[in-house]
Amino acid sequence: MKKNIVLLPGDGIGEEVTASAQRVLDAVAHQFNHTFTYQTEAIGGAAIDEFGTPLPEATEKACHASDAVLLGAVGGPKWDENPSHLRPEKGLLGIRKSLGLFANLRPVQGFAELLHASPLKHEVVNDSDLLIVRELTGGLYFGTPSERRDDGASVVDTLAYERSEIERIVRKGFEAASVRRKHLTSVDKANVLESSKVWREVVNEIAPEYPDVTVEHMLVDAAAMKLITAPTDFDVIVTENMFGDILSDEASVLTGSLGMLPSASLREDGFGLYEPVHGSAPDIAGQGLANPFATILSAAMMLRYSFAMQKEAETIEKAVDSVLKQGYHTGDLNVKNGQKVGTKEITDYVIEMIEDHSATE
Ligand code: NAD
Ligand code: IPM
Ligand code: MN
After folding, report:
1. Tens-place pLDDT, residues 61-112
2. N- or C-end of the chain: fewer Cβ atoms within 10 A?
3. Where do the DSSP E strands lie in the chain?
4. By the 8 A CB rule, do 128 and 254 touch?
5. ipTM surpasses cut 0.95
């Protein structure tokens, strides 16, 4: 198959991890006789520096014309004091909105060999396997007004949703649960927020359409606690944009590192942008230390969701698993008795495993 992939490396470790994922995609293309062509475009701080805007028109156009998009990360201290419209993060929010990527799937599945890398007890983390379905183009991130008033004496952000926006993400949650362990936890703050009360209503209205899925409502504060005390109680979590952002970083602790969590940001027709959950990690950027697995596993999600390449996706996931089994890991993972290596080296090992795959089939 021939596919045109837009790469948006962005800032900080975004460049390093995207380069790793591209090498892995190339190895897969070679093994399975596909042709992946790449077009690299600017986003975030890098785009501000080069074009004076975090989301250049050319980037938007290229993404719309592509078969799928792979993004690294945006942001960094260099742009932290910029006015809101000139922040790297605005580029990321802008491309999600422009492409209509309302459904952000964030699977949190621990690799067996990393059980001990989590600061949580082995028996708590063991067998945890959950999926966060995060609403991505509405809620607190996109409501208007959002501004400083009276010269900064007061300030407002707005949490707004159309009922239809809640309905479509809730349906995604139900659909995901119905092909997994059939348990959906809807996370909200319905004891305080009007938007959450409507969210709960919508979940209850849609529930009868999925009779084999059990539904539970949970307040976000309690969910934050349960996520790290009883993670195996969860199957699919569906939640508002900002709640999903916060809970997914927290959930990464189950896997041993934020550097392990991939994600897919999808439109209704299946078009997707794939991105690690983590950010640009300015503290380790440019040093060859970043864990590329979140992005490599995001590339695997691209193959599965956008290109229907199941075997190819599994080959990547198995290769990552094998490399971890051999004890190789990057410095963010607290692995005992393993061998700590850098971004490039661990990517080399993954590629070796992929090249070996036909021999081991
Ligand atoms: P971060 O996710 O960049 O880093 C948090 C911590 O995790 C850091 O200690 C970092 O070194 C570590 N870490 C993250 N990813 C790693 C990886 N792959 N390998 C090894 N260690 C990793 O969050 P932050 O420091 O709060 O934010 C830094 C910048 O990134 C900010 O500008 C923020 O806005 C941006 N950000 C962007 C995205 C995105 O582009 N999707 C996501 C989150 C944060
Ligand atoms: C993420 C990030 C972004 C978000 C920021 C950088 C806008 O934290 O992808 O999780 O909050 O969506
Ligand atoms: Mn985040």
Report:
1. 999 999 999 999 999 999 999 999 999 999 999 999 999 999 999 999 989 9
2. C
3. 2-10, 35-40, 68-73, 103-109, 129-135, 139-149, 154-160, 183-188, 214-219, 236-239, 264-266, 272-274, 328-329, 339-340
4. yes
5. yes
Predicted confidence (pLDDT) at residue 285 exceeds the cutoff of 80: yes
Cα 312-95-24 angle, rounded to 5 deg: 25
* Domain boundaries, given as residue ranges, for the chain: 1-109+258-361, 119-255
Please compute the mean of the pLDDT values over residues 191-219 and round it to a whole number.
98
What are 293-321's pLDDT values in tens digits? 999 999 999 999 999 999 999 999 999 99
Our answer on whether the CB atom of 352 is closer than 6 Å to any ligand 2 atom is no
Q: Do domains 1-109+258-361 and 119-255 have the same CATH topology?
A: yes
Which amino acids are annotated as binding site for NAD(+), given as ranges?
A: 76-89, 279-291
Q: CA-CA distance, 108 to 121, in Å (whole number)?
A: 17
**C-alpha 310 to ligand 1 mean position (Å):** 29
% of the chain exceeding 70 in pLDDT: 99
Please state which CATH number belongs to domain 1-109+258-361: 3.40.718.10
Give residue 103's Cα distance to chain centre: 11
User: Which residues, 6 or more positions from 212, have their beta carbon under 8 angstroms from its beta carbon?
Assistant: 178, 182
Q: What is the CA(277)–ligand 3 centre distance, in A?
A: 6
Domain 119-255 CATH superfamily:
Isopropylmalate Dehydrogenase (3.40.718.10)
Residues with C-beta atoms within 5 A of ion ligand 3:
245
How far is the centre of ligand 3, averaged over its atoms, from the C-alpha of 360 (Å)? Answer: 37
